[in-house]
Q: What sequence folds into this?
């Protein structure tokens, strides 16, 4: 709830005893617990008032649904009307990346990769160091959307 560990709890108890003293500490604990109980009762009565004002169509309304994460998890991910689980399971990132790597290295999809060799054979792939010919006068250079 509050992520208070055992050592922190002991330190808080010792601090409370030092601040309030052993004779006033029980009364302080009673006052704090009574205040928390009243706040909880007020919160529950406010929730019931809101539910009664909303009407019968909102009888199963939960205030936790107002949290965006809870709302999305409950209404989108659990029902899976969009088929998100099927899409997620049908996508294999590892095979997609290996296909891209094979295409970059100039290997065919059905050609097995050379064992122990990561460099492509000379002349098998595109020569990226070769200078491209300049366009003719009045001709626009090719547009590369990835470079922009």
A:
């Amino acid at each position: 709830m509050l992520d208070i560990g055992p050592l922190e709890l002991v330190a808080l108890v010792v601090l409370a005893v030092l601040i309030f003293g052993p004779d006033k500490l029980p009364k302080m604990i009673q006052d704090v617990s009574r205040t928390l109980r009243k706040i909880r009762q007020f919160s529950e009565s406010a929730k019931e008032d809101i539910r009664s004002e909303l009407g019968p169509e909102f009888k199963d309304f939960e205030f936790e649904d107002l949290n965006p994460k809870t709302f999305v998890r409950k209404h989108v991910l659990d029902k899976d009307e969009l088929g998100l689980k099927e899409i997620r399971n049908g996508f294999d990132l590892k095979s997609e990346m290996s296909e891209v790597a094979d295409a970059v290295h100039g290997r065919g999809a059905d050609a097995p990769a050379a064992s122990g060799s990561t460099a492509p054979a000379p002349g098998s792939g595109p020569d990226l160091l070769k200078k491209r010919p300049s366009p003719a006068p009045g001709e626009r250079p090719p547009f590369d959307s990835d470079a922009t």
